[in-house]
Specification:
By secondary structure, the protein is of the alpha/beta class. The chain has three domains: 3-94, MurE/MurF, N-terminal domain (Udp-n-acetylmuramoylalanyl-d-glutamate--2,6- Diaminopimelate Ligase, Chain: A, domain 1, 3-Layer(aba) Sandwich), CATH 3.40.1390.10; 100-311, UDP N-Acetylglucosamine Acyltransferase, domain 1; 315-345. A twelve-stranded mixed beta sheet has the order 8-11-14-17-20-25-28-31-34-37-39-40. A ten-stranded parallel beta sheet has the order 9-12-15-18-21-26-29-32-35-38, with no helix packed on it. A hairpin with a 2-residue loop joins strand 22 and strand 23. It is flat, with a radius of gyration of 27 Å.
């Protein structure tokens, strides 16, 4: 990467404020900016750093108006964060591509491998698998029998795809992710718990990204579904027969119990818990650590456990903070009432 401010502005359809010829060769955080790097300002909390950063170029929103002198060249764009994402994608595409099939990998004879695939050391591909074009299968990946990977799928080290699962185009699985492990199904009996065989699969549609150590259980029957465009963070648990709607995003440590259906374009904060067999309406926003125990029938913004409307939660939280004071007041009133009762009796 080595570009001038003018080249970057042309690529992003931005406006240069300052030296058009200044060049950068890498990226940096605004508070750690160094000469020869590009950074960005998208969050107002970091505005003070733009006046001291040593970065050579700063991406800013078009409505940014400096209150003092800035040494860096500015590039004004419609959305600084989105523009940074475009540049990061450009940098990612410029990285050398992994190629070839390692002699230390194992591919069952009945499986087919698409063109331009990379398969790293100690990767295992079972019987009757179909691996699409441009697959990147890093070392120590396990792919069970009868798995289908469509084109442009990336499996980072140590990820596991159990037998029969179907993975769509342009999907990414980060290290340690597991797709298709058994759902948590046990029937109580006199001797303990008997395992219920989990004979379904997991179906993951196009353009999905799964974070590190996230687990998606296979269905008891039928399929667990992760619809197109879904983005799951690290350490998420998706139980059997769950369905996550298109373009829904979830932060780390979310847990979804069995057979719950979550609509499209939902946003879910970290450590949210969903009870089983419920439906969550499309376009709902669930705040961090919420506990969703019942159907969400229309697009909602929820917080708390059990989850309630975020405005109600905010009002309740104000009262909660005052509980010690309210307790003292109630105790005092109780004593006064008892004293009045005593005096009336006498």
């Amino acid at each position: 990467m080595d570009f001038s401010a003018r080249q970057i502005a042309d690529f992003l359809h931005g406006e240069v404020i300052g030296n058009e010829e200044v060049r950068v060769s890498s990226l940096s955080k605004i508070e750690e900016g160094k000469p020869g790097t590009l950074t960005f300002l998208a969050n107002a909390k970091y505005t003070n750093h733009i006046y001291t950063t040593q970065a050579s170029i700063v991406l800013v929103n078009r409505d940014f108006s400096p209150e003092q002198t800035i040494n860096a060249t500015l590039i004004k764009v419609d959305n600084a964060y989105n523009s940074l994402a475009m540049l990061l994608n450009l940098v990612e595409q410029a990285k050398p591509k992994k190629k070839g099939i390692s002699s230390l990998s194992f591919i069952s004879p009945g499986s087919t491998i698409g063109e331009n695939a990379y398969i790293g050391e100690f990767a295992f591909i079972g019987e009757n698998c179909v691996i699409g074009k441009n697959a990147k299968i890093y070392p120590q990946v396990y792919i069970g029998d009868n798995v289908t990977l469509k084109d442009n799928v990336t499996l980072y080290p140590g990820s596991k795809i159990y037998e029969g699962c179907i993975i769509g185009n342009n999907c990414t699985f980060h290290a340690g992710s597991v797709v298709g492990s058994d759902g948590f199904g046990f029937a109580p009996s006199a001797d303990g718990y008997s395992k219920i065989p989990q004979i379904g699969i997991v179906t993951i549609e196009d353009n999905v990204e799964i974070g590190a150590n996230t687990t998606i259980d296979r269905a008891t029957m039928g399929s667990t579904y992760i619809r197109k465009g879904v983005k799951l963070d690290n350490l998420i648990q998706v139980a059997h027969n769950v369905e996550i709607g298109e373009h829904t995003v979830m932060a780390a440590q979310v847990g979804i119990a069995g057979s719950t259906k979550i609509g499209e374009w939902c946003m879910v904060g970290g450590q949210v818990g969903f009870a089983g067999h419920i439906h969550v309406a499309a376009h709902s926003n669930i705040g961090a650590q919420a506990g969703v125990s019942a159907d969400v029938k229309s697009a909602s913004s929820l917080l708390g456990a059990p989850a309630i409307d975020f405005k109600d939660f905010a009002r309740s939280n104000v009262v909660y903070k005052k509980l010690p004071e309210l307790y003292k007041t109630v105790s005092m009133l109780q004593k006064e009432i008892e004293a009045l009762k005593s005096s009336i009796t006498k």
